Amino acid sequence: MRRIMEAGRLCLGLLASGRGSNFDAIMTAIIRRELNATMAVVISDNRDAAVLQKAKVHNVKNRFVNPRDFNSKSEYEQHLVELLQAESVDVVVLAGYMRIVGSVLLDAYQDRVVNIHPSLLPSFMGLHAQRQAVEYGVKYSGCTVHLVDEGMDTGPIIMQAVVSVAQDDDEDSLATRILVEEHKIYWRCLQLLAEGRIYLEGRRIFIC
Amino acid sequence: MRRIMEAGRLCLGLLASGRGSNFDAIMTAIIRRELNATMAVVISDNRDAAVLQKAKVHNVKNRFVNPRDFNSKSEYEQHLVELLQAESVDVVVLAGYMRIVGSVLLDAYQDRVVNIHPSLLPSFMGLHAQRQAVEYGVKYSGCTVHLVDEGMDTGPIIMQAVVSVAQDDDEDSLATRILVEEHKIYWRCLQLLAEGRIYLEGRRIFIC
């Protein structure tokens, strides 16, 4: 069993493509001192992402990085790694980052890239997980915080939360209720990392 | 939206390969008059299945049908259909029946074959669902009652129950806790059928 990281204040870098509601929830936990972390930088691949504005409000460094400015995904990610390392980031937080993370970023931050996905993985990997859940007809869905590996939404699971699906739920109503749970569990997982309590054995995570 | 069946006393036929713990739970609900049904016949593909003995104890007709006595799966299932129809069975209950149901049985009992699976489908279809869940490292699993279609564990979901997975759970301890929930939800789904409250729209089930 291998400890992911020693206890200590986390230095977070957050990658997001959209509104950044999980950024808000994490910032709130930091401000309340429930999460022992610093938000060092927010990076978005979307110039118009609301998360960049939110970062400014919190006086958090924020960068738009246009993937089209690079010749390859590797070069793009190499630039991300440089930005993250320049801020001494030790954990990369994906929050609605709409790209599959490649080997350059994963190699630089092995077992230090975390993501949240709006389903009870391994059900409903990929895009539109809430819509998938409604269309499949499950009675429970939820969200999953996991370490990121080479697959899409396949990495080791740190924490999950369950949300019941009502039979009149549509994609939006379910997404709204799942988001409430996302905001509760994401920063808690980060705090477990900060407390040095997360261990990995094979693909299973143990909290000790 | 199509109603699966009108309200009325169910006439059940149960197919099982093993111990038949779900048979016990269903019989208990019938005896307590919580489930408006008659158990007309229990059929097993396994001569030594404990469920056949349990059926005898309850004075329920019971049959061992050896699939090897038939030239094809179709002929085997045609025989099952004849046995079930001879008892006026209107709903076929799979309870640890270790075979994939084929088109002969499904055509004779369209949307009237129900199964229970020890995971939160669509996660962990197929064999050893509890082991799959432990090895994957999910934090929640459970069980699913569903209508049977041509796929393996892919049919429309009637009801699910959630079970948390402890980090010291193994396949057996998780299976034991899931089984408790199976015994609670399977007969309830059958009672919803008996009440004529289950409707199908596409692959989604609505309880009205």
Question: What can you see in these coordinates?
Answer:
Two copies of one chain form a homodimer. Chain A is an alpha/beta fold. Chain A folds into two domains: 9-110, Rossmann fold; 115-208, Formyl transferase, N-terminal domain (Rossmann fold). The first copy, chain A, has six helices and ten strands; from the N terminus they run E-E-H-E-H-E-H-E-H-E-H-E-E-H-E-E. Chain A has helices spanning 21-31, 50-57, 73-86, 103-108, 129-136, 171-194, and strands at residues 2-3, 10-16, 37-44, 61-64, 91-94, 113-117, 140-147, 157-164, 198-201, 204-207. The first copy, chain A, has a seven-stranded mixed β-sheet with strand order 4-3-2-5-6-7-8, with helices on both faces. A three-stranded antiparallel β-sheet of chain A has the order 1-9-10, with no helix packed on it. In chain A, a hairpin with a 2-residue loop joins strand 9 and strand 10. In chain A, helix 1 (21-31) runs parallel beside helix 6 (171-194) and helix 5 crosses helix 6. Chain A is globular. The N and C termini of chain A lie close together (11 Å).
